[in-house]
UniProtKB/TrEMBL annotation:
Keywords: Aromatic hydrocarbons catabolism, ATP-binding, Coiled coil, Nucleotide-binding. Residues 125-152 form a coiled coil. It comes from the Bacteria. It comes from Bacillus salipaludis. This is HTH-type transcriptional regulatory protein TyrR. The lineage of its organism: Bacteria, Bacillati, Bacillota, Bacilli, Bacillales. Residues 154-383 form the Sigma-54 factor interaction domain.
Length: 472
Protein backbone atom coordinates (compact mmCIF):
# COMPACT_ATOMS: atom_id res chain seq x y z
CA UNK A 1 0.00 0.00 0.00
CA UNK A 2 1.52 3.32 -1.06
CA UNK A 3 1.87 6.39 1.13
CA UNK A 4 -0.72 8.20 -0.99
CA UNK A 5 -3.30 5.52 -0.26
CA UNK A 6 -2.44 5.49 3.44
CA UNK A 7 -3.08 9.21 3.68
CA UNK A 8 -6.69 8.57 2.65
CA UNK A 9 -7.26 6.65 5.86
CA UNK A 10 -8.13 9.54 8.12
CA UNK A 11 -9.67 9.15 11.57
CA UNK A 12 -13.27 9.14 10.37
CA UNK A 13 -12.66 6.50 7.72
CA UNK A 14 -10.68 4.34 10.15
CA UNK A 15 -13.59 4.40 12.61
CA UNK A 16 -15.96 3.33 9.84
CA UNK A 17 -13.66 0.45 8.95
CA UNK A 18 -13.39 -0.74 12.57
CA UNK A 19 -17.17 -0.52 12.97
CA UNK A 20 -17.66 -2.90 10.04
CA UNK A 21 -15.86 -5.63 11.96
CA UNK A 22 -18.15 -8.09 13.72
CA UNK A 23 -15.61 -8.69 16.49
CA UNK A 24 -15.43 -6.32 19.49
CA UNK A 25 -12.52 -3.86 19.48
CA UNK A 26 -11.53 -1.85 22.56
CA UNK A 27 -9.03 0.98 22.94
CA UNK A 28 -8.04 1.84 26.52
CA UNK A 29 -5.47 4.15 28.05
CA UNK A 30 -2.60 2.95 30.27
CA UNK A 31 -4.84 3.19 33.38
CA UNK A 32 -7.56 0.98 31.92
CA UNK A 33 -10.00 3.79 31.07
CA UNK A 34 -12.07 3.02 27.97
CA UNK A 35 -11.36 5.59 25.24
CA UNK A 36 -13.22 4.01 22.31
CA UNK A 37 -15.06 0.81 21.34
CA UNK A 38 -16.48 -0.27 18.02
CA UNK A 39 -20.14 -1.03 17.45
CA UNK A 40 -19.67 -4.77 17.96
CA UNK A 41 -18.21 -4.19 21.43
CA UNK A 42 -21.12 -1.95 22.39
CA UNK A 43 -23.58 -4.66 21.32
CA UNK A 44 -21.68 -7.51 23.01
CA UNK A 45 -21.42 -5.76 26.38
CA UNK A 46 -24.90 -4.33 26.80
CA UNK A 47 -24.28 -2.30 29.96
CA UNK A 48 -24.92 1.16 28.62
CA UNK A 49 -22.16 3.56 27.69
CA UNK A 50 -18.79 1.81 27.76
CA UNK A 51 -16.60 4.82 26.98
CA UNK A 52 -15.36 6.45 30.16
CA UNK A 53 -15.65 3.29 32.27
CA UNK A 54 -12.62 1.60 33.77
CA UNK A 55 -11.87 -2.03 32.93
CA UNK A 56 -10.53 -2.71 36.45
CA UNK A 57 -13.88 -1.65 37.94
CA UNK A 58 -15.85 -3.58 35.32
CA UNK A 59 -13.83 -6.69 36.14
CA UNK A 60 -14.67 -6.26 39.85
CA UNK A 61 -18.35 -5.86 38.91
CA UNK A 62 -18.24 -9.10 36.95
CA UNK A 63 -18.83 -7.61 33.48
CA UNK A 64 -16.02 -9.85 32.28
CA UNK A 65 -13.26 -11.98 33.78
CA UNK A 66 -10.36 -11.61 33.45
CA UNK A 67 -9.64 -8.11 32.15
CA UNK A 68 -7.24 -8.52 29.24
CA UNK A 69 -6.14 -4.89 29.57
CA UNK A 70 -5.19 -5.53 33.20
CA UNK A 71 -3.09 -8.53 32.19
CA UNK A 72 -1.36 -6.48 29.47
CA UNK A 73 -0.66 -3.66 31.97
CA UNK A 74 0.71 -6.09 34.58
CA UNK A 75 2.82 -8.19 32.19
CA UNK A 76 3.55 -5.54 29.53
CA UNK A 77 3.27 -8.00 26.65
CA UNK A 78 0.84 -9.47 24.14
CA UNK A 79 -1.90 -11.50 25.89
CA UNK A 80 -4.35 -13.96 24.36
CA UNK A 81 -6.70 -15.92 26.57
CA UNK A 82 -10.29 -16.94 27.23
CA UNK A 83 -12.67 -14.46 28.85
CA UNK A 84 -16.05 -15.06 30.49
CA UNK A 85 -18.69 -12.31 30.30
CA UNK A 86 -21.45 -11.36 32.71
CA UNK A 87 -24.09 -13.23 30.68
CA UNK A 88 -21.90 -16.38 30.78
CA UNK A 89 -20.64 -15.89 27.23
CA UNK A 90 -17.14 -17.02 26.31
CA UNK A 91 -14.75 -14.94 24.26
CA UNK A 92 -11.29 -15.52 22.92
CA UNK A 93 -9.61 -12.16 23.58
CA UNK A 94 -6.22 -10.81 22.51
CA UNK A 95 -4.62 -7.60 23.69
CA UNK A 96 -1.44 -5.66 23.11
CA UNK A 97 -0.16 -2.17 23.82
CA UNK A 98 0.98 0.82 21.79
CA UNK A 99 4.14 2.24 23.38
CA UNK A 100 4.97 5.89 23.86
CA UNK A 101 8.32 7.40 22.91
CA UNK A 102 9.91 5.91 26.05
CA UNK A 103 8.62 2.42 25.38
CA UNK A 104 6.01 2.60 28.16
CA UNK A 105 2.37 1.70 27.68
CA UNK A 106 0.35 4.53 26.10
CA UNK A 107 -2.70 2.73 24.72
CA UNK A 108 -4.04 -0.83 24.90
CA UNK A 109 -5.95 -2.41 22.02
CA UNK A 110 -7.98 -5.57 22.57
CA UNK A 111 -9.79 -7.76 20.06
CA UNK A 112 -12.40 -10.38 20.96
CA UNK A 113 -14.13 -13.19 19.13
CA UNK A 114 -16.87 -15.52 20.28
CA UNK A 115 -15.16 -18.69 21.40
CA UNK A 116 -17.76 -20.77 19.60
CA UNK A 117 -16.74 -19.12 16.31
CA UNK A 118 -13.10 -19.93 16.94
CA UNK A 119 -14.06 -23.51 17.75
CA UNK A 120 -16.12 -23.91 14.58
CA UNK A 121 -13.39 -22.46 12.44
CA UNK A 122 -10.69 -24.70 13.92
CA UNK A 123 -12.94 -27.83 14.22
CA UNK A 124 -11.08 -28.67 17.39
CA UNK A 125 -13.78 -28.40 20.05
CA UNK A 126 -12.16 -30.84 22.48
CA UNK A 127 -8.76 -29.20 22.15
CA UNK A 128 -10.10 -25.69 22.67
CA UNK A 129 -12.14 -26.75 25.71
CA UNK A 130 -9.04 -28.28 27.28
CA UNK A 131 -7.10 -25.12 26.51
CA UNK A 132 -9.89 -23.08 28.09
CA UNK A 133 -9.67 -25.14 31.27
CA UNK A 134 -5.90 -24.71 31.29
CA UNK A 135 -6.26 -20.95 30.84
CA UNK A 136 -8.78 -20.77 33.67
CA UNK A 137 -6.49 -22.72 35.97
CA UNK A 138 -3.48 -20.57 35.06
CA UNK A 139 -5.47 -17.38 35.57
CA UNK A 140 -6.69 -18.65 38.95
CA UNK A 141 -3.12 -19.42 40.03
CA UNK A 142 -1.91 -16.01 38.87
CA UNK A 143 -4.69 -14.29 40.78
CA UNK A 144 -3.92 -16.27 43.92
CA UNK A 145 -0.22 -15.46 43.66
CA UNK A 146 -1.00 -11.77 43.24
CA UNK A 147 -3.41 -11.81 46.17
CA UNK A 148 -0.85 -13.51 48.39
CA UNK A 149 1.47 -10.59 47.61
CA UNK A 150 -1.19 -7.96 48.17
CA UNK A 151 -3.16 -9.34 51.12
CA UNK A 152 -1.40 -7.93 54.13
CA UNK A 153 -2.91 -10.07 56.88
CA UNK A 154 -1.12 -13.14 55.49
CA UNK A 155 2.22 -11.43 56.09
CA UNK A 156 4.02 -12.74 59.16
CA UNK A 157 4.48 -15.94 61.09
CA UNK A 158 2.17 -15.43 64.04
CA UNK A 159 -0.24 -18.20 64.98
CA UNK A 160 -3.10 -15.85 64.10
CA UNK A 161 -1.83 -15.23 60.57
CA UNK A 162 -1.21 -18.94 60.00
CA UNK A 163 -4.62 -19.82 61.41
CA UNK A 164 -6.32 -17.34 59.06
CA UNK A 165 -4.49 -18.78 56.07
CA UNK A 166 -5.37 -22.39 56.94
CA UNK A 167 -8.98 -21.53 57.77
CA UNK A 168 -9.54 -19.69 54.50
CA UNK A 169 -8.44 -22.76 52.53
CA UNK A 170 -10.70 -25.05 54.56
CA UNK A 171 -13.87 -23.00 54.16
CA UNK A 172 -13.37 -21.67 50.63
CA UNK A 173 -15.27 -24.47 48.90
CA UNK A 174 -17.77 -25.06 51.70
CA UNK A 175 -20.51 -23.22 49.87
CA UNK A 176 -22.33 -21.60 52.77
CA UNK A 177 -22.57 -18.26 54.55
CA UNK A 178 -19.56 -16.87 56.41
CA UNK A 179 -19.56 -14.15 59.08
CA UNK A 180 -16.31 -12.22 59.56
CA UNK A 181 -15.87 -10.19 62.72
CA UNK A 182 -13.07 -7.93 63.87
CA UNK A 183 -12.12 -4.34 64.46
CA UNK A 184 -11.98 -1.74 61.71
CA UNK A 185 -8.87 -2.07 59.59
CA UNK A 186 -7.99 -5.72 60.31
CA UNK A 187 -8.53 -6.82 56.69
CA UNK A 188 -12.04 -8.29 56.53
CA UNK A 189 -12.58 -7.22 52.92
CA UNK A 190 -9.29 -8.72 51.78
CA UNK A 191 -10.08 -11.93 53.65
CA UNK A 192 -13.50 -12.19 51.98
CA UNK A 193 -11.94 -11.71 48.56
CA UNK A 194 -9.32 -14.33 49.40
CA UNK A 195 -12.06 -16.87 50.17
CA UNK A 196 -13.76 -16.03 46.87
CA UNK A 197 -10.55 -16.55 44.91
CA UNK A 198 -9.86 -19.88 46.59
CA UNK A 199 -13.39 -21.11 45.87
CA UNK A 200 -14.81 -22.66 42.72
CA UNK A 201 -16.65 -19.35 42.18
CA UNK A 202 -13.38 -17.49 41.55
CA UNK A 203 -14.10 -16.95 37.85
CA UNK A 204 -17.43 -15.30 38.70
CA UNK A 205 -18.12 -11.83 40.16
CA UNK A 206 -17.08 -10.70 43.62
CA UNK A 207 -19.47 -7.87 44.56
CA UNK A 208 -18.83 -5.66 47.60
CA UNK A 209 -21.67 -3.76 49.28
CA UNK A 210 -20.84 -1.53 52.26
CA UNK A 211 -24.14 -1.46 54.16
CA UNK A 212 -22.96 1.44 56.31
CA UNK A 213 -21.99 3.67 53.39
CA UNK A 214 -25.31 3.60 51.49
CA UNK A 215 -28.37 5.55 52.68
CA UNK A 216 -31.00 3.27 54.17
CA UNK A 217 -33.52 4.35 51.54
CA UNK A 218 -31.28 3.10 48.71
CA UNK A 219 -30.06 -0.25 50.03
CA UNK A 220 -33.11 -2.20 48.87
CA UNK A 221 -32.85 -0.98 45.28
CA UNK A 222 -29.07 -1.47 45.25
CA UNK A 223 -29.30 -5.01 46.55
CA UNK A 224 -32.48 -6.36 44.97
CA UNK A 225 -32.92 -4.03 41.99
CA UNK A 226 -36.22 -2.70 40.64
CA UNK A 227 -38.46 -3.09 37.63
CA UNK A 228 -39.24 -0.45 35.07
CA UNK A 229 -41.52 2.24 36.56
CA UNK A 230 -41.27 0.81 40.08
CA UNK A 231 -41.29 4.27 41.66
CA UNK A 232 -41.05 7.96 40.81
CA UNK A 233 -37.56 8.87 39.68
CA UNK A 234 -36.59 5.30 38.88
CA UNK A 235 -34.50 4.53 35.83
CA UNK A 236 -36.84 4.06 32.88
CA UNK A 237 -35.19 0.74 32.08
CA UNK A 238 -35.23 -0.55 35.63
CA UNK A 239 -32.11 -1.59 37.50
CA UNK A 240 -30.29 -4.85 38.01
CA UNK A 241 -29.56 -5.42 41.71
CA UNK A 242 -26.26 -6.55 43.16
CA UNK A 243 -27.68 -9.98 43.94
CA UNK A 244 -28.38 -10.54 40.25
CA UNK A 245 -24.98 -9.10 39.33
CA UNK A 246 -23.29 -11.56 41.71
CA UNK A 247 -25.09 -14.62 40.31
CA UNK A 248 -22.85 -17.72 40.61
CA UNK A 249 -20.30 -15.54 42.40
CA UNK A 250 -19.88 -14.01 45.84
CA UNK A 251 -21.68 -11.09 47.47
CA UNK A 252 -19.76 -9.47 50.33
CA UNK A 253 -22.05 -7.58 52.73
CA UNK A 254 -19.70 -5.35 54.71
CA UNK A 255 -20.88 -3.68 57.93
CA UNK A 256 -23.90 -6.02 58.05
CA UNK A 257 -24.76 -4.64 61.50
CA UNK A 258 -25.97 -1.47 59.74
CA UNK A 259 -28.41 -3.35 57.50
CA UNK A 260 -31.91 -1.80 57.91
CA UNK A 261 -34.21 -3.76 60.23
CA UNK A 262 -37.21 -3.55 57.89
CA UNK A 263 -35.25 -5.26 55.09
CA UNK A 264 -33.70 -8.02 57.17
CA UNK A 265 -36.60 -10.42 56.57
CA UNK A 266 -36.14 -10.01 52.82
CA UNK A 267 -32.43 -10.76 53.14
CA UNK A 268 -33.21 -13.76 55.35
CA UNK A 269 -35.56 -15.14 52.72
CA UNK A 270 -32.83 -14.92 50.11
CA UNK A 271 -30.31 -16.64 52.38
CA UNK A 272 -32.71 -19.50 53.03
CA UNK A 273 -34.21 -20.01 49.58
CA UNK A 274 -31.93 -18.12 47.15
CA UNK A 275 -35.07 -16.31 45.98
CA UNK A 276 -36.06 -12.64 46.06
CA UNK A 277 -38.33 -10.08 44.44
CA UNK A 278 -37.21 -6.90 42.74
CA UNK A 279 -38.96 -3.71 43.81
CA UNK A 280 -42.19 -3.34 41.83
CA UNK A 281 -42.18 -6.92 40.64
CA UNK A 282 -44.36 -9.84 41.76
CA UNK A 283 -42.24 -12.40 40.00
CA UNK A 284 -39.84 -14.41 42.16
CA UNK A 285 -36.23 -14.30 41.00
CA UNK A 286 -33.51 -16.81 41.77
CA UNK A 287 -29.76 -16.29 42.10
CA UNK A 288 -26.96 -18.66 43.03
CA UNK A 289 -24.90 -16.36 45.27
CA UNK A 290 -22.62 -17.09 48.18
CA UNK A 291 -22.95 -14.54 50.97
CA UNK A 292 -19.99 -13.41 53.07
CA UNK A 293 -20.90 -10.85 55.74
CA UNK A 294 -18.65 -8.78 57.97
CA UNK A 295 -19.07 -6.53 60.99
CA UNK A 296 -17.02 -4.69 63.59
CA UNK A 297 -19.89 -4.57 66.09
CA UNK A 298 -21.31 -7.21 68.41
CA UNK A 299 -24.35 -8.53 66.56
CA UNK A 300 -25.70 -10.31 69.63
CA UNK A 301 -25.82 -6.93 71.37
CA UNK A 302 -27.76 -5.60 68.37
CA UNK A 303 -30.14 -8.57 68.72
CA UNK A 304 -30.70 -7.70 72.39
CA UNK A 305 -31.30 -4.06 71.43
CA UNK A 306 -33.91 -5.14 68.88
CA UNK A 307 -32.10 -3.68 65.88
CA UNK A 308 -31.00 -7.01 64.39
CA UNK A 309 -33.07 -10.13 63.86
CA UNK A 310 -32.01 -13.18 65.85
CA UNK A 311 -32.91 -15.61 63.05
CA UNK A 312 -30.85 -13.58 60.56
CA UNK A 313 -27.88 -13.58 62.94
CA UNK A 314 -27.94 -17.37 63.27
CA UNK A 315 -28.33 -17.76 59.51
CA UNK A 316 -25.28 -15.57 58.91
CA UNK A 317 -23.25 -17.14 61.71
CA UNK A 318 -22.93 -20.61 60.18
CA UNK A 319 -19.18 -20.25 59.67
CA UNK A 320 -17.97 -17.49 61.98
CA UNK A 321 -14.41 -16.18 61.77
CA UNK A 322 -12.85 -13.55 64.03
CA UNK A 323 -9.88 -11.71 62.59
CA UNK A 324 -7.66 -10.61 65.48
CA UNK A 325 -6.40 -7.03 65.84
CA UNK A 326 -2.78 -6.26 65.12
CA UNK A 327 -1.94 -5.74 68.80
CA UNK A 328 -2.72 -9.43 69.38
CA UNK A 329 -0.30 -10.55 66.66
CA UNK A 330 2.72 -8.36 67.39
CA UNK A 331 5.04 -10.90 65.73
CA UNK A 332 3.60 -9.73 62.42
CA UNK A 333 4.29 -5.99 62.88
CA UNK A 334 7.90 -6.07 61.64
CA UNK A 335 7.07 -8.27 58.60
CA UNK A 336 4.15 -5.94 57.81
CA UNK A 337 6.40 -2.88 58.07
CA UNK A 338 8.85 -4.47 55.64
CA UNK A 339 6.02 -5.57 53.36
CA UNK A 340 4.60 -2.07 53.02
CA UNK A 341 8.03 -0.46 52.85
CA UNK A 342 8.81 -2.65 49.83
CA UNK A 343 5.39 -2.01 48.31
CA UNK A 344 5.60 1.78 48.52
CA UNK A 345 9.28 1.90 47.61
CA UNK A 346 8.30 0.17 44.40
CA UNK A 347 5.24 2.35 43.85
CA UNK A 348 7.10 5.65 44.33
CA UNK A 349 10.48 4.51 42.94
CA UNK A 350 12.26 4.89 46.30
CA UNK A 351 14.91 2.86 48.12
CA UNK A 352 14.28 3.86 51.72
CA UNK A 353 15.03 1.71 54.75
CA UNK A 354 13.81 1.90 58.35
CA UNK A 355 16.20 2.54 61.22
CA UNK A 356 16.21 0.12 64.14
CA UNK A 357 15.08 2.88 66.50
CA UNK A 358 12.03 3.56 64.34
CA UNK A 359 11.27 -0.16 63.96
CA UNK A 360 11.40 -0.61 67.74
CA UNK A 361 9.11 2.39 68.24
CA UNK A 362 6.54 1.14 65.73
CA UNK A 363 6.73 -2.37 67.14
CA UNK A 364 5.72 -1.07 70.57
CA UNK A 365 2.91 1.10 69.21
CA UNK A 366 -0.65 -0.08 69.92
CA UNK A 367 -1.98 0.27 66.31
CA UNK A 368 -5.59 0.98 67.21
CA UNK A 369 -6.33 1.44 63.50
CA UNK A 370 -4.78 -1.99 62.81
CA UNK A 371 -3.28 -2.88 59.41
CA UNK A 372 -5.00 0.03 57.67
CA UNK A 373 -3.31 2.51 60.02
CA UNK A 374 0.06 0.82 59.52
CA UNK A 375 -0.33 0.87 55.74
CA UNK A 376 -1.30 4.54 55.65
CA UNK A 377 1.59 5.53 57.93
CA UNK A 378 4.15 3.64 55.83
CA UNK A 379 2.94 5.23 52.62
CA UNK A 380 3.14 8.66 54.25
CA UNK A 381 6.67 8.02 55.53
CA UNK A 382 7.92 6.81 52.16
CA UNK A 383 6.47 9.88 50.46
CA UNK A 384 7.55 12.54 52.97
CA UNK A 385 10.97 11.34 54.18
CA UNK A 386 13.92 12.86 52.35
CA UNK A 387 16.93 10.79 53.37
CA UNK A 388 17.85 7.23 52.39
CA UNK A 389 16.79 6.09 55.87
CA UNK A 390 13.45 6.77 57.53
CA UNK A 391 14.20 7.85 61.09
CA UNK A 392 12.15 8.41 64.22
CA UNK A 393 12.02 12.15 63.55
CA UNK A 394 10.23 11.48 60.25
CA UNK A 395 7.11 10.36 62.12
CA UNK A 396 4.31 12.93 61.66
CA UNK A 397 3.77 15.36 64.51
CA UNK A 398 0.25 14.03 65.08
CA UNK A 399 1.47 10.45 65.54
CA UNK A 400 0.43 9.61 69.14
CA UNK A 401 3.60 7.89 70.28
CA UNK A 402 5.92 10.45 68.75
CA UNK A 403 3.86 13.26 70.22
CA UNK A 404 4.07 11.85 73.77
CA UNK A 405 7.82 11.36 73.48
CA UNK A 406 8.33 14.88 72.20
CA UNK A 407 6.28 16.31 75.06
CA UNK A 408 8.42 14.46 77.62
CA UNK A 409 11.63 15.62 76.01
CA UNK A 410 10.44 19.21 75.69
CA UNK A 411 9.36 19.37 79.34
CA UNK A 412 12.39 17.67 80.89
CA UNK A 413 14.00 20.97 81.82
CA UNK A 414 10.91 21.92 83.82
CA UNK A 415 10.78 18.66 85.80
CA UNK A 416 12.72 17.15 88.64
CA UNK A 417 14.23 13.73 87.91
CA UNK A 418 11.69 11.79 90.08
CA UNK A 419 8.74 13.47 88.35
CA UNK A 420 10.28 12.91 84.93
CA UNK A 421 10.80 9.21 85.68
CA UNK A 422 7.22 8.92 86.93
CA UNK A 423 5.97 10.39 83.65
CA UNK A 424 7.98 7.80 81.72
CA UNK A 425 6.65 5.00 83.96
CA UNK A 426 3.10 6.25 83.50
CA UNK A 427 3.53 6.34 79.71
CA UNK A 428 4.92 2.77 79.65
CA UNK A 429 2.14 1.56 81.93
CA UNK A 430 -0.61 3.01 79.73
CA UNK A 431 0.92 1.69 76.52
CA UNK A 432 1.49 -1.83 77.88
CA UNK A 433 -1.96 -2.15 79.44
CA UNK A 434 -3.66 -0.95 76.25
CA UNK A 435 -1.77 -3.68 74.38
CA UNK A 436 -2.61 -6.49 76.80
CA UNK A 437 -5.99 -5.35 78.25
CA UNK A 438 -5.08 -7.10 81.50
CA UNK A 439 -3.34 -6.01 84.70
CA UNK A 440 -1.98 -9.55 85.11
CA UNK A 441 -0.51 -9.62 81.58
CA UNK A 442 0.82 -6.08 82.04
CA UNK A 443 2.58 -7.12 85.23
CA UNK A 444 4.03 -10.22 83.59
CA UNK A 445 5.31 -8.26 80.61
CA UNK A 446 6.91 -5.56 82.76
CA UNK A 447 8.36 -8.04 85.24
CA UNK A 448 6.48 -6.82 88.32
CA UNK A 449 3.63 -8.10 90.48
CA UNK A 450 -0.03 -7.51 89.68
CA UNK A 451 -0.49 -5.72 93.02
CA UNK A 452 2.30 -3.33 92.01
CA UNK A 453 0.41 -2.46 88.83
CA UNK A 454 -2.81 -1.86 90.78
CA UNK A 455 -0.98 0.49 93.15
CA UNK A 456 0.54 2.43 90.25
CA UNK A 457 -2.85 2.81 88.60
CA UNK A 458 -4.16 4.34 91.81
CA UNK A 459 -1.11 6.58 92.22
CA UNK A 460 -1.35 7.92 88.66
CA UNK A 461 -5.16 8.36 88.87
CA UNK A 462 -5.73 5.89 86.05
CA UNK A 463 -8.90 3.88 85.61
CA UNK A 464 -10.02 1.23 83.18
CA UNK A 465 -12.72 2.29 80.72
CA UNK A 466 -13.76 0.04 77.83
CA UNK A 467 -10.55 -1.99 78.23
CA UNK A 468 -8.39 1.13 78.00
CA UNK A 469 -6.56 3.09 80.65
CA UNK A 470 -7.75 6.68 80.99
CA UNK A 471 -6.92 9.44 83.43
CA UNK A 472 -9.58 10.35 85.97
Amino acid sequence: MTADVLQQFDGELLIKILNTLKDPIWINDKNGNVLWVNQAAAETFSIGELIGNNVFEMEKQGVFSPSISRLVIEQKRFISTAQITQDHGRLLVSGDYIPDENGDIQYIVTHARQLSQAINQSSELEKVESILQLYKQQIRELILQKNQQDEDFYVGNSKAAQSISVWSQKIADIDTTILLTGETGVGKTAFAYRIHQLSSRNHKPFIHLDCGAIPESLIESELFGYKKGAFTGANVNGKLGLIAAADQGTLFLDEIGEFPLHLQSKLLQFLQNKTYRMIGDNQVQQADVRIIAATNVNLMERVKEGTFRKDLFYRLNILPMKIPPLRERKEDIIPLLNFYLSKFNQKYSRRQTLTKNLMDTLYNYSWEGNIRELENLMERLVITSTGPKIVLEDLPSDFPLQQSQQMLLQNIEDMSLPIYLEQIEKSILIKTYNETNSTWKTAKKLGVSQSYIIRRLKKFNLRISEKKLVEE
